[in-house]
Input
Amino acid sequence: MNAIVKSLALSLCLTLTFGAISAHAVVETYQFRSEADQRRYRALIEELRCPKCQNQNLAGSDAPIAQDLRREVYRLINSGSSDQEILQYMLERYGDFVLYRPRFTLETLALWLGPVVLVLIGMGIWWRLSRTTRETDAPASLNDEERRALNKVLESPGE
Amino acid sequence: MARLKLFIPLIIFIALALLFFAVETRVSEGEYDPKELPSALIGKAFPAFQLPDLQTQQILDESLLRGQVSIVNVWATWCPTCLYEHPFLVALAGRNEVGVYGINYKDDPEKARRWLAEKGNPFAANIVDEAGSLGLDLGVTGAPETFVVDRQGVVHMRYQGGLDEAVWQAKFAPLIARLQAEQVQQ
Output
């Protein structure tokens, strides 16, 4: 019973998480010169973050600014800009925030290295804890007096 | 020593509670806005543009902002906070402290002219940006936003949200006084 509830809860969590990520609000249909351009457009609006709605990408946002930026990405692709040029164009206007994978700079250092530092701290704590458990688990040896007392208890008849 | 260890979770809890309380106090007092984004334009020249003036239809460009410390306010008639800050802008323009310019952002120019006729016009000039192209170059995410530009046309600050006297005194007045003093020396 418990296992069923658990697996149901887990699958619900997974559906909510991944369902939310793949939700699209895009309504415009743009005509591209090729399949490849279409794919680049998809990839770019997934990668670029909406500057107004903070935790959505351009593909997932209905905000007017996201519509404008999608149109801009479309215009840049059709005018022959490379992906790198388009990202640079957005970066110059909206800063590092617009990239879901920001550049590695002094300002984004905590963002990139934070998880590594946390894992290291966690491993440190785990190592410390496992060492103390080993010490307490070690078989305690009894001295002669204790052994005699133990034998006495074991040999004494139960009531 | 071992007993002291028992208090570690409590100490962590109190430290976090104090931290969150401090941040939340700053948010509620308007000193810190977690949604505010640093502008990519700070320290850079105001982007080049060629757009018409709202009243005269003359084509304006970035040289408009040279020669004085000015603020450039991004506004629209569809923006409720712009309505809120409008009386302050009118009062500010009356004090002649700084040049007050407007960008009429993604708006209907006819409506914008009517709005200014009804509520007073604080702007020395209004750049019509119907398509939002200048807004895009400025990294505007919505209206209102206000930029501080020095005499050389360099952007020094971007403020997102409505202006009033308190915001002006806290965030704008010191910077503008500094920019004006700097430029008198030169």
Summary: Chain A has a mean pLDDT of 81.
